[in-house]
Amino acid sequence: MAIKGVLFDFSGTLFRIESTRQWLTAVLADTGTEQPGAEVDRLVRELERAGALPGGPPPEAVPAHLAELWATRDESAERHRAAYTGLARKVPLPDPRLYDALYDRHMTPAAWRPYPDAADVLHALQRRGVPVGVISNIGWDLRPIFRAHGLDPAVAAYVLSYEHRIQKPDPELFRRACDALGTDPHDVLMVGDDRTADAGATAVGCAVHFVDHLPVDRRPDGLRPVLALLDRPGAAGA
């Protein structure tokens, strides 16, 4: 296979969301909401169990009244916000305004960190003339995150589920991503952390390489094998 384009997932692949504790304490500080340490600890545990942080731990259980919304949460901005604030509302917070404040926080550049090797790998692909696309199941515009962290110049195209109202693993979203790169799907490598959603790329002929969804400090070089794949005989840039 000659790799002529690479698609990357966003959360858990190129970037990692902050911890639930960092997320909550940042919002409490920004809103001037004071809580004793033991109460913060309790809220962190309950928000994690609820799965209220997008990109964080999944919910232990999705309430029946949110099940349909949860299943299609990445098809629109409205559904995404409603799903995650709905999960957060399982946890009583000291101020009802905190639910939207928490959701808003997760869309800020400060809430995300790129994996240590993300910049090196993206810029190496750019130097080799291999176009890069970002394909994500998401309900908001992640482009400002890439710009804030200096990675936007290395990305040729963004294909976001909420803008197309299609979620991975639907093959159509991968087909549109390959079209955005101007590359035949059989010449594209999909890199992601979700063995179900990202595996949908195989239906259109892409090869798939999986990485582990780990904290940033526990995965310093999980993306570098992508460059090794390009260095195989017959691959682009070899």
Automatic annotation (TrEMBL):
Under the heading InterPro entries, the entry gives: HAD-like_sf (IPR036412), HAD-SF_hydro_IA (IPR006439), HAD_sf (IPR023214)
List the GO molecular function terms. Answer: hydrolase activity
Sorted UniProt keywords: Hydrolase
Q: Domain of life here?
A: Bacteria
A Pfam family found in this protein is Hydrolase
Q: Which NCBIfam families match?
A: HAD-SF-IA-v1
Can you say what this protein is called?
Answer: HAD-IA family hydrolase
Give the species this sequence originates from.
Pseudonocardia zijingensis
